[in-house]
Design a protein that fits this description.
about 160 residues; alpha+beta; endopeptidase fold (from Nostoc punctiforme); 8 strands; globular
């Protein structure tokens, strides 16, 4: 039988401080808090999975949590995990989804933006409450943004449902 020696008392404050620091960091307020079992359709599952990837690094051509994501890679990966195979590139994803009115957006719908003078050159996944998840650009991480933010509202070009 092994005998475990008690921890010296002088290390106890350090241990308690370290544990308290881990427990006191709340999740970002914007990230939707959903229980996995409560997510119904493939679109909701894709939105839930995309939200769980907030903080993953951007990588041009990336399509996995290990290598990072670009915008269409994030859509492709999260929908594949939700059981739906969508094309890999933004233009083909747009064609694979049907147009809907922005007023009818539901979690999992795709939001397309015109960036750098290019039509429908960026895509994100709507998560509800006016927010979407996307992989913005080099040097940034997958993040949640608001559709009604001045920049994104101006650049929004289409809303579509896979």
């Amino acid at each position: 039988m092994a005998i475990i020696a008690p921890m010296p008392v002088r290390f106890l404050p350090v241990l308690l401080l370290a544990l308290a620091g881990c427990a006191s960091v709340p999740p970002p307020a914007e990230v939707p808090v959903l229980k996995e079992g409560s997510v119904q359709g493939a679109g909701e599952r894709a939105a839930w999975r995309a939200a769980s990837l907030v903080g993953t690094p951007y990588r041009f051509g990336g399509a996995s949590p290990i290598e990072g994501f670009d915008c269409s890679g994030l859509v492709h990966f999260t929908y594949r995990e939700a059981g739906v195979v969508l094309p890999r590139d933004t233009a083909a994803q747009r064609l694979a989804a049907r147009p809907i009115r922005a007023a009818d957006l539901a979690p999992g719908d795709l939001v397309f933006f015109d960036l750098d003078g290019k039509k429908n050159s960026h895509v994100g996944i709507y998560t509800g409450r006016g927010q979407f998840v996307h992989a913005p650009s080099t040097g940034k991480d997958v993040r949640l943004d608001r559709l009604d933010a001045p920049f994104w509202r101006k650049q929004l070009s289409e809303t579509r449902r896979p």
